[in-house]
Structures are given as structure tokens and as C-alpha cells.
Design brief:
Largest sheet: 12 strands, mixed
Shape: globular
Organism: Apodemus speciosus (Large Japanese field mouse)
Strand content: 25-35%
EC number: 2.3.1.-
Pfam family, one: Gly_acyl_tr_N
Oligomer: single chain
Number of helices: 9
Distance between the termini: 43 Å
Domain N-acetyltransferase: 267-403
Keywords: Acyltransferase, Transferase
Radius of gyration: 26 Å
């Protein structure tokens, strides 16, 4: 039986809740307190899809929210009140603390809650549903595939609703160990059908960890504008760097790529080992730091890779796969270029991914003409959408982060 785990976040099946409530304000009911609404005082008006609550409420000193059992299934939701204006009533109340109880009414309030999808059956359903939204959903699709196949990078899926979702974000599980400077691992993939739903999901309190260096990536053009707008609305002091690339997808590689030119015991076609991570870290334009070294080692350990090794057993050309099932860091050492290694590695890695059911996708910079020509020569498809990667750095980490 699939359900929703009671994590540090209160997870429920109802995504939007409109509340009308009237209650008696008692002494000490000031902004920044929490009202605890007993379940017995909540009734569901199915026709208008509203919960009608009428009761006296106890107040507790903690973050402003309303907590109560508001679903027919009896699940507990934490509903964050973002629209209620306390200023006039509360200012008057503070002047009359000793006047006893005051009646006070509130308008309808729309409150958002997120859903963390952790049911294996529903995650498999989601994987199939995302196929109908290619190519824009490819990054999230790759992340969901990895979740469904052992989840080596400890990811989870956050949605605005199920099954009729409008926005999805994949992120690292909150219980996973994190390094606040590691934007490689602190990575979110995004897909949305409605950009407003994505914005609302970002605005939720517990969806994004804004207190670390992280990245957001996807194949939809509004990512930067929306993410920046939400950060500004939250009054966050963040530096946001945007990089945009051509997005590509390999056609099916039906036969083993020709490697007859690899004669003798060396060079030989094989795969990378974790011991090769240092070389990859030194040669990657995004590397050269400890966070990247650890990240590359994890990618090599968890996902498919291909390399050509020389007579000493050292990699001279390679390609790896990232946490979103994207082919990345394709590189050939300068002294070994123009030998056909890059073509062989790319086709072999694409075929390996395809044999496991993964999409063979990748990204390439607009000015990387050598790679673009290579991709054209092997019949790769350049997608109509572009790959966008945002790296967001809080001011507190601006001098420490390696971007």
C-alpha cells in the first residue's frame, strides 16, 4: 500500500486548502504565534471544497502556521499562512491586551502544500507519464529513472499535486549528508506544465534549501526569471549565474561501434574507475576542487562510463553519466586527439545507456565547434529546447564557492 511518509515536512494529499475561520483572539495572540486547530472542529464542505472552522484557538510561540488534521484520511498538514494581514487588528489588540476576548473574522485564505512522492508504484507511473513531455522533461525523467533503479544519489521528487501535477522538482533527500559548498551534488532538476505552479512550488518553505550553494537545471526557458523572482521576493542575498547550452539526443545505436582500429592489447576500450576521478577533476572546465573530485568519484561509482586506456592503463579519452542520466565531461587528452576516440566513446556510452532503458542525452556549448561537428557526424539530434543551468550562491559563501 503506497503512502506518503511523515518526514520533517507534513505531507498530505490535498494541495490547496481554502479556509474560512472565525475565532476568539485571546491575550497573547500576536503575529508569529501558531494556532492549533483540533480535528473535531474541522468539517469538509465538498461542494465548495472548503474547510469551515469555527472555534476558540490556543496560541503557541513558534513559526506562524496553521496545523490541523484537514484531510478525510486524517493526515496532518502544515499550512503556511502567507496572505493574512494582521497589522491593523493586531496593532489594536496589543493596545487592549487586558480587555479580554475579542471576536475577529478572517477572509478566505489560499494555502499551498507540497507533496513528496515516495511510493515506488507512483514513481514508476511518473516515469512513464514524463515520457509524454519529452524533450522538456528529460532532466527530471533521468533523475526519476535513477530513483527507480536504486537511487544511488539519494534523490526524491517534489510535486504540486498528484496525479495531475503541474510542476516537479527533484532534489536531494533531506536526510542525505550535504556539503553547503557542493553545488554539483546540491542539484535540482525542474519540469513544469505551468510556470506559475513552478513558482508557487519554489515559494514553499521547505522545497529548496536556500542556505547553501546549489544548482537548478532544466530544459525550459523561464527557469532563470522565475527562480530569480522568488529569491528576490524572499529577500535573499544570492548571486545567480546562468549558463545555457545546446541540448542533444542520440539516435538509437543499434550495433556495436566500430573499434577495429584499436589493435593489440592497447589502446583498449573499457570503463572508468574511481581512481581516475582525479584526472577528470583536473581536466574538467568546471572542476579543480574537492567538491568536484568527490562528485566525479560518485558519478563513476554509480553510473555508466566509457574510456579508452593507453598502454600504461591510463585514460586518454572518456565520457561519464551524471545524476540526471545526462552524458557529460566528454574529453580526450590533447596528445590523443584526431584518432577517433571521442566518436567511439560517445557512441559506446550512448549505446550502453540505451541498453539500460535510459535516454542518451547531452549538452554542448555553442562555441564548442569540435563537439558540435562530432555530434552532427554521428547523427545526434539537436533539440528545439536549450539546457539551462543556474548556480545560486548565498552571499555568505561567495568567497568559498568554486563555480
Amino acid at each position: 500500500m503506497c503512502g506518503h511518509s511523515p518526514s520533517p515536512f507534513h505531507r498530505g494529499l490535498i494541495r490547496k486548502v481554502a479556509l474560512t475561520y472565525k475565532f476568539t483572539i485571546t491575550e497573547g495572540a500576536l503575529p508569529g504565534y501558531t494556532a492549533i486547530i483540533p480535528v473535531s472542529d474541522c468539517t469538509l464542505n465538498r461542494k465548495e471544497n472548503k474547510h469551515e472552522v469555527s472555534n476558540s484557538i490556543q496560541w503557541y510561540d513558534c513559526n506562524l502556521s496553521l496545523e490541523g488534521r484537514l484531510t478525510p484520511e486524517g493526515e496532518t498538514l502544515s499550512l503556511h499562512d502567507r496572505e493574512l494581514d494582521y497589522s491593523e487588528e493586531m496593532a489594536d489588540l496589543q493596545k487592549q491586551k487586558t480587555d479580554g476576548n475579542r471576536a475577529w473574522g478572517a477572509e478566505y485564505i489560499t494555502l499551498e502544500t507540497m507533496l513528496v512522492l515516495n511510493c515506488s508504484t507512483k514513481l514508476l507511473m511518473l516515469e512513464n507519464m514524463l515520457k509524454s513531455h519529452f524533450p522538456e522533461s528529460l532532466k527530471v525523467y533521468g533523475a526519476v529513472m535513477n530513483i527507480n533503479r536504486g537511487n544511488p544519489f539519494q534523490k526524491e521528487v517534489v510535486l504540486d499535486s498528484w496525479p495531475d501535477f503541474k510542476a516537479i522538482i527533484t532534489r536531494q533527500q533531506r536526510e542525505a549528508e550535504t556539503d553547503n559548498l557542493d553545488h554539483y551534488t546540491n542539484a535540482y532538476a525542474v519540469f513544469y506544465k505551468d510556470v506559475k505552479a513552478y513558482q508557487q512550488l519554489l515559494e514553499e518553505q521547505d522545497v529548496i534549501n536556500w542556505d547553501q550553494v546549489f544548482q537548478i537545471q532544466g530544459l525550459q526557458s523561464e527557469l532563470y526569471a522565475v527562480s530569480k523572482a522568488v529569491a528576490n521576493a524572499k529577500l535573499l542575498d544570492l548571486d545567480i549565474k546562468l549558463a545555457s547550452f545546446k541540448a542533444v539526443h542520440f539516435s538509437p545505436v543499434s550495433s556495436v561501434p566500430d573499434h577495429s582500429f584499436l589493435t593489440g592489447p592497447s589502446p583498449r576500450l573499457t570503463y572508468l574507475s574511481v581512481a581516475d576521478a582525479d584526472l577528470l577533476n583536473r581536466t574538467w572546465s568546471r572542476g579543480g576542487n574537492q567538491q568536484c573530485l568527490r562528485y566525479l568519484a560518485n558519478l563513476i561509482a554509480c553510473f555508466p562510463s566509457v574510456c579508452v586506456r593507453d598502454e600504461k592503463g591510463n585514460p586518454v579519452s572518456w565520457g561519464i553519466t551524471d545524476q540526471f542520466a545526462t552524458m557529460c565531461h566528454g574529453y580526450t587528452l590533447p596528445d590523443h586527439r584526431r584518432k577517433g576516440y571521442s566518436r567511439l566513446v560517445a557512441l559506446t556510452l550512448a549505446r550502453k545507456l540505451q541498453s539500460r532503458g535510459f535516454p542518451s542525452q547531452g549538452n554542448v556549448r555553442d562555441d564548442n565547434l569540435a563537439s558540435i561537428n562530432l555530434l552532427k557526424s554521428v547523427g545526434a539530434e539537436f533539440l528545439p529546447c536549450r539546457f539551462h543551468r543556474l548556480i545560486l550562491t548565498p552571499a555568505a559563501f561567495s568567497r568559498q564557492a568554486h563555480l
